[in-house]
Design goal:
Blueprint (H helix, E strand, L loop, with lengths): L9 H20 L4 H8 L3 H8 L7 H10 L14 H12 L11
């Protein structure tokens, strides 16, 4: 079975690189080796390396498992928590009043 290639925009690629770097720094601050973290997360060392490199082919579950092992799982709650565009769209729809159609007389 071949892996699907994921092409990200440059902006998303930069974000993934930052996430990977943040995870690597968190591991280093805790003085945890790649072997230890990979074992705790139930993944291989090469997969952990992919996480720390911010590769988009790694599943969200693997990222979540690594964050859990670092004690950072609650950071996932911040994903899409603030949705200013969605709120503006919702507010615009709420303020839009529908015109009533007059009843027909028989």
């Amino acid at each position: 079975m071949t892996k699907k290639s994921v092409t990200l925009s440059p902006t998303l690629n930069d974000i993934m690189l930052s996430i990977g770097e943040n995870i690597k720094l968190a591991r280093l601050r805790r003085k945890i080796t790649t072997a230890m973290l990979a074992e705790r997360a139930g993944i291989s060392r090469p997969t952990l390396t992919k996480v720390e490199n911010g590769e988009s082919t790694v599943s969200m579950g693997v990222y979540a498992s690594v964050l859990f092992c670092l004690g950072l799982e609650k950071d996932l709650l911040h994903l899409a928590a603030d949705d200013p565009l969605g709120r503006r769209l919702q507010d615009a729809e709420l303020t839009h009043t529908k015109e009533r159609v007059a009843k027909r007389k028989k």
